[in-house]
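in:
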């Protein structure tokens, strides 16, 4: 299928033939956060972030 991004809203989702990096370049940094190589979130729905790694 190649590169695509699934964009979710509260009611449905869209498949777009783009990379997540291309979205990341266009979205406002103060409103979105990349939490994984495959996931971005709208910051207004994030209340707390905790690191989960061991040294």
């Amino acid at each position: 299928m190649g590169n695509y991004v699934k964009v979710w809203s509260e009611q449905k989702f869209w498949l777009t033939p783009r990379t997540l990096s291309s979205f990341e370049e266009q979205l406002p940094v103060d409103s979105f956060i990349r939490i994984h190589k495959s996931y971005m979130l709208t910051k207004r729905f994030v209340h707390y972030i905790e690191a989960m790694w061991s040294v």
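note: The two ends are 37 Å apart (CA to CA).
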